[in-house]
Amino acid sequence: MAFKQILIENLKSKIDEDKLHFLPSGFQRIGDIIVLNLNKEVLKYKKEIGKIVLNNFKVRSVCLKEGGITGTFREPQISVIAGDKCTVVTHFENGCYYNLDIKKIMFAKGNLSERVRIAKQVRHDEIIVDMFAGLGYFSVPIAKLGKPKKIYAIELNPVSFKFLKENLSLNKIEGIVEAINGDSKEEVLKLVENGVKADRVLMGYLPPPKEFLPYAMKIIKKKGFLHYEDLIRTEYVDEDVGKAMKLISDAAAAEGLKVKLLLAKRVKGYAPKIEHYVLDIAVF
Questions:
Q1: Are residues 72 and 7 part of one domain?
Q2: 143-178, pLDDT tens digit by residue?
Q3: 210 and 141 inside one domain
Q4: Is residue 36 part of a domain?
Q5: Which residue of 30, 32, 131, 251 has the fewest CB atoms within a 10 Å radius of its CB?
Q6: DSSP output for 128-188
Q7: Distance from C-alpha of 137 to C-alpha of 94, rounded to nearest angstrom
Q8: Helix, strand or coil for residue 280?
Q9: CA dihedral over 122, 127, 132, 137, signed as positive or negative
């Protein structure tokens, strides 16, 4: 039976008939926790909905997404509506394990294919700098699925950094990935001073980290690759990609480099008429 139909069958005697179509048709599963989005029309039934989901699926907890990402460290707004109150979970995808607290750290399953796509591009013995590593969204699958020589995974958020360290151990990749707790601007300069040059730089952060572009260009090699994430208006894709490329080109020129756009790829929707894009860029 479909998810929505399960909810309808269990709630049709408690909810007005004209409200039933507002029930969710799907959910996000992270490890053994289910996360729901609920329409305001059925929000007052959240506890009942949580119990139904808990009773029909083999999960430990059911959580409600209450809003968007907030704060400097982009924390999700999530509450437990049924089951265990602990929100620390181990999630498994594509041969990789991720420990995280879903109340404190964002985990976008919509980026799953993107994590794999980037990992498959990595060539043998590459040196990679992940400027916004989080809990290892890209560094972990690249180390597990690709064959890099070294990944420098930089993360400012102390909570994310804690889980990043755990995930390196969990996936047995501590010898490949060096976790660095600090601001990317400062840490990239330290790496440059120590003679590090990257074959590939990842800038997987939203809103787009424009002010970090000069630092990415300081550490990237000629014939290297940059992966830059941006927010693009649905009706102005060419214009907005062009603006992003101008910023990237200017940052490259300051270091005596040139760039070429290889691919502008839509990752997922972000907001009404706004799309999450990644730009694959060759540096030469």
A1: yes
A2: 999 999 999 999 999 999 999 999 999 999 999 999
A3: yes
A4: yes
A5: 32
A6: EEETT-TTTTTHHHHHHHS--SEEEEEE--HHHHHHHHHHHHHTT-TTTEEEEES-HHHHH
A7: 12
A8: strand
A9: positive
Mean pLDDT of 38-66: 96
CA 50/CA 53 separation, integer angstroms: 5
3-state secondary structure string, 197-229?
CEEEEEECCCCCCHHHHHHHHHHEEEEEEEEEE
What is the token pair recorded at 179?
């976790």
Q: Write down the residue that tokens 């964002």 correspond to.
A: 106
Work out the number of other CB atoms within 10 angstroms of the CB of residue 40. 7
Question: How many of the other CB atoms lie within 10 Å of CB of 185?
Answer: 15
How many Å apart are CA 252 and CA 281, to the nearest integer? 11
* Nearest alpha-carbon partner for 252 in 219, 229, 230, 280: 219
Report residue 53 as tokens: 């989901």
Encode pLDDT of 22-33 as tens digits: 999 999 999 999
**Which residue is associated with the tokens 């490329």?**
245
Single-letter amino acid, residue 69: I
What is the reported pTM? 0.93
Q: Please check whether residues 114 and 46 belong to one and the same domain.
A: no
Q: Which domain holds residue 24?
A: 3-86
Q: Residue 58 region, left (φ>0) first, then alpha (ψ -120 to 50), else beta?
A: beta
- 20 and 142 co-located in one domain: no
The Cα 212–Cα 217 span in angstroms is 9
Q: Can you tell me the distance from the alpha carbon of 50 to that of 219, in angstroms, rounded to the nearest whole number?
A: 48
For residue 151, CA distances in Å to 50, 142, 255 come to 40, 9, 22
